[in-house]
Amino acid sequence: MAGSVHLGTQGWNYPAWVGPFYPPRTRAPELLTVYARAFDTVEVDSTFYAVPSAKTVRGWGERTPPHFRFALKMPQEITHERRLRDCAGAAREFLDRARELEDKLAVVLLQFGPDFTPAELPALAEFLPALPQDVRFAVEFRHRGWIYDGVLALLG
Q1: Which residues contact 94 (CB under 8 A, 6 or more apart)?
Q2: 29-155 domain in CATH 3.20.20.410?
Q3: pLDDT tens digits, residue range 3-24?
């Protein structure tokens, strides 16, 4: 079975790109539309800092072509502050918002800081099975202690 590769960057809203990448005088509301002419995917980092409004998320979808895909970063409230504990409501709110992208939602990234060590395994083992099956997830560990067969089996 042949796979596909999607190319993109982390974000699109970079004023310094106007001129080198975006045409001169490209306005902020046009950046995503222009970006989507060159790339077919983007990682949205802003969702790490705050859950966007439904209107904002729908706008992202409306300003991109049908084949375009988004990777949204799970909010830091869930991954860093609550460390996967007591966050079912926050996760549900975020995922409901992410679903506004419909088929354009490629994946939700759970990115953990280097201080999220294998000592957090019980929280991870409780959190992962509660995730919905209709959304794809990716996990990024920044502590090397996570790379062992037991964790790989849990993620599989």
Answers
A1: 47, 51, 74, 75, 78, 108
A2: yes
A3: 888 899 999 999 999 999 999 9
